[in-house]
């Protein structure tokens, strides 16, 4: 749903009556994951996707009905349904879509504030014709409707795993809104320019660290990193939150900079560390890290040579391969 927030804000400013359709269950080769959403206006305009085009027409038709009736509904689409071919779901998968009038103003206002503040939270909805909504913040505080405390263990697990899902009760859907992932860029170079633009495109917050003022401040970025530190990594990194939502990319080509960053990052909980350089360059890096006292297991956690092998030569191609590798790790893929 994050990808349609700007459209929701625009439609709300225009005063349009809206419905929202959210994928709440999928089976087999369903084309869109749970939590994918489609916003529909009263005149049938839509933004977002619940199936990549397979069932959008039927969902929009249902949404327009629901805008008029004010009653939410869970709609099932699958190849075994009589109308499956009619709506175009021929991939062999199936999905449940919760189509509902747009959230009450108080709920959406709180959601919008939390999204602006980049605070992780969950939205708990009852799957009924008149849904009740609860917002559970990362600190455990709740707003909106009350809910049974017996749901808390499942909610905590969902938030920890980042998984939106129908709870075991069968009549509650929790949608997880994690905070933005962070791409930490060490070293300003041509590849950094391209990678920063891609990172923004995929919803990452970007932080650049480079003690070389000429490189950090004078490089011509089409999309600038949101934060720029013209300092050494060892001066900045201890003050940053280096957690599982952080993806670090080492790009300076200068061991004096790269090694200082790696010394800290290898002892942190970041989700990804990638380092630019050829196999020969990385072999020398490995020897230096061994001399610093790092274990083979720690060193092997570095993605190097960086990026998925697509035969990259140009900075933009290398950046694309790095972005693909970061997304692979973020989505649960291995090294």
From TrEMBL:
What are the residue boundaries of the XdhC Rossmann domain, all occurrences included? Answer: 183-326
InterPro entries referenced in this protein's UniProt entry, alphabetically: MoCofactor_Util/Proc, XdhC_CoxI, XdhC_Rossmann_dom
**One Pfam family from the record:** XdhC_CoxI
What residues does the XdhC- CoxI domain cover?
Answer: 13-78
Q: Quote the protein name from its UniProt record.
A: XdhC/CoxI family protein
